[in-house]
Specification:
This protein has 79 residues and is mainly α. It has two helices and no strands. The chain has a domain of 53 residues.
């Protein structure tokens, strides 16, 4: 674990952005895992499994897209 960049105020925005991006990634990963379990319990071909699969695909796409809201322009007022 790296120390907080308290001695360099210009790096705090980047640091906060990377921490938030990681928290978001972990949250989406957990949601996808829950949907996989839901799909298995529902059984192949059921409406519930298909809905869970569609949601899982949506979350995976969101997890893979660049974190535009955490870009340098959006964090710390830089850009």
């Amino acid at each position: 674990m790296s120390p907080l960049p308290h001695d360099k105020p210009e790096t705090l925005g980047h640091y906060a952005g990377t921490v938030l991006a990681r928290v978001l990634d972990l949250s989406l990963t957990r949601q996808v895992a829950g949907l996989r379990g839901q799909m298995q319990r529902a059984g192949a071909g059921t409406d519930e499994a298909q809905a869970a699969f569609a949601e899982m695909i949506r979350l995976e796409a969101r997890r893979r897209e660049p974190a535009r809201h955490l870009s340098p322009a959006g964090v710390g007022g830089r850009g």
